[in-house]
C-alpha cells in the first residue's frame, strides 16, 4: 500500500512510498482510508520524534474492508471514523474496534475525519466539567479544531459559552456563529465567574482561567499550545472567598473507555449538520507538507484535511 512515510532525508521530513499492508489483530478491523485530518500535536511532536519509515496519523475516515476476527466492531462495507496512535496516513489501517465509530452512508469522509481527536477531546472535556446546562463555560484557544468543537458542543448542551481567542476582532463573528455568547481576548476579560473551563492553551492562560472558576468549578487541561509551564502566584489555590472546591484535571484520550459510541454520536451530529468542524485547509495528501507547515505556523484556524487518493 501507499503511505506518507517519515523520511528525514527530504526537506519536508515526509515522502509518499510503499509499505506492507497492515495485519490486523483479532480485535482490529482493516480500514480503507479515504481521508485524514491533521492535529497540531502529531505534527509538532510525533513527526519530530518518529523514526524513518514510520506511518503516523491519529484521525482517519474510511470503509471497513475486513471485519475484526473476534466478531466485534462493524461489518465489512461499513463507513467508519477511526482513532489510533498512528497509521492514519496510509491507504489501509488496522484499528482496534473500541476506537471505531460508524458513519451515516453518504457522509463526506473528509468532514467526518475531523471527529476523533478534536471532537472526542472536546466532548470528554465537557463531560469532565460536569453538567453544562445553564452554566457558564469558558473555552480558551477557541479558534483551533478542538476549541471550535468545544464551543459548539457546549452551546448544544445548553451552556452560556465564553470563547477566548487572541484576535476577537478577526474571529469574533465566526465564533458567535459557532455558538459563543461572548468572545474575549483572554480569561482576564471574562466578566463573571465560570463553572467550567476547557483550556487549549496552558501556561499563563491556564493560570488566569483557573482564577475565573466559581466555587465547585473545574478546569480541564486539554491543549498546551503556549508551550509554557504553569506558575501559580501565592494565594491562587486558596479555597476561601467563594473559591472552595475548584479543581484542575487532565486526561489522555487514548486512555478513555467507551470511545466508539462517542465517535459514532459525533459523526452523526456532523452528518446532520449540527456540528461544523470548520475545515480551513483541504487537499490531497500530496499537499501534506504545506498543510503541516500552515499548522505549525499557526496560520490555520480550524481543521486541516487530506484526502487519500
From TrEMBL:
Matching entries from SMART domains are given as:
PKS_ER
**What are the Enoyl reductase (ER) domain coordinates in residue numbering?**
9-306
Positions the record marks as coiled coil are none
Pfam families, alphabetically? Answer: ADH_N, ADH_zinc_N
InterPro entries, alphabetically?
Answer: ADH-like_C, ADH-like_N, ER, GroES-like_sf, NAD(P)-bd_dom_sf, Zn-ADH-like_protein
State what protein this is by name.
Zinc-binding dehydrogenase
Native species of this protein?
A: Streptomyces xantholiticus
Q: Which lineage is the organism of this entry classified under, starting from the top rank?
A: Bacteria, Bacillati, Actinomycetota, Actinomycetes, Kitasatosporales
Amino acid at each position: 500500500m501507499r503511505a506518507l512515510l517519515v523520511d528525514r532525508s527530504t526537506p519536508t521530513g515526509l515522502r509518499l512510498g510503499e509499505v506492507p499492508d497492515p495485519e490486523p489483530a483479532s480485535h482490529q478491523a482493516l480500514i480503507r482510508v479515504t481521508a485524514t485530518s491533521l492535529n497540531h500535536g502529531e505534527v509538532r511532536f510525533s513527526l519530530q520524534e518518529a523514526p524513518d519509515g514510520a506511518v503516523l496519523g491519529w484521525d482517519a475516515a474510511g470503509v471497513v474492508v475486513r471485519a475484526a476476527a473476534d466478531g466485534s466492531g462493524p461489518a465489512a462495507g461499513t463507513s467508519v471514523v477511526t482513532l489510533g496512535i498512528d497509521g492514519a496516513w496510509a491507504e489501509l489501517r488496522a484499528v482496534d474496534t473500541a476506537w471505531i465509530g460508524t458513519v451515516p452512508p453518504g457522509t463526506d469522509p473528509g468532514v467526518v475525519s475531523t471527529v476523533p481527536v478534536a471532537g472526542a477531546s472536546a466532548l470528554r472535556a465537557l463531560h469532565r466539567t460536569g453538567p453544562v446546562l445553564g452554566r457558564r463555560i469558558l473555552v480558551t484557544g477557541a479558534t483551533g479544531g478542538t476549541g471550535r468543537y468545544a464551543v459548539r458542543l457546549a452551546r448544544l448542551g445548553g451552556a452560556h459559552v465564553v470563547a477566548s481567542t487572541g484576535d476577537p476582532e478577526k474571529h469574533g463573528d465566526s465564533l458567535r456563529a459557532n455558538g459563543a455568547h461572548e468572545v474575549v481576548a483572554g480569561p482576564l476579560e471574562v466578566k463573571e465567574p465560570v463553572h467550567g473551563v476547557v483550556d487549549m492553551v496552558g501556561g499563563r492562560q491556564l493560570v488566569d482561567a483557573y482564577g475565573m472558576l466559581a466555587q465547585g468549578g473545574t478546569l480541564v487541561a486539554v491543549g498546551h499550545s503556549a508551550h509554557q509551564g504553569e506558575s501559580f502566584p501565592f494565594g491562587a489555590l486558596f479555597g476561601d472567598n467563594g473559591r472552595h472546591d475548584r479543581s484542575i484535571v487532565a486526561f489522555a484520550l487514548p486512555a478513555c473507555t467507551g470511545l466508539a459510541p462517542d465517535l459514532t454520536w459525533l459523526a452523526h451530529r456532523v452528518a446532520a449538520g449540527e456540528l461544523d468542524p470548520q475545515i480551513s485547509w483541504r487537499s490531497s495528501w500530496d499537499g501534506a507538507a504545506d498543510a503541516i507547515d500552515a499548522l505549525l505556523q499557526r496560520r490555520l484556524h480550524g481543521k486541516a484535511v487530506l484526502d487519500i487518493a
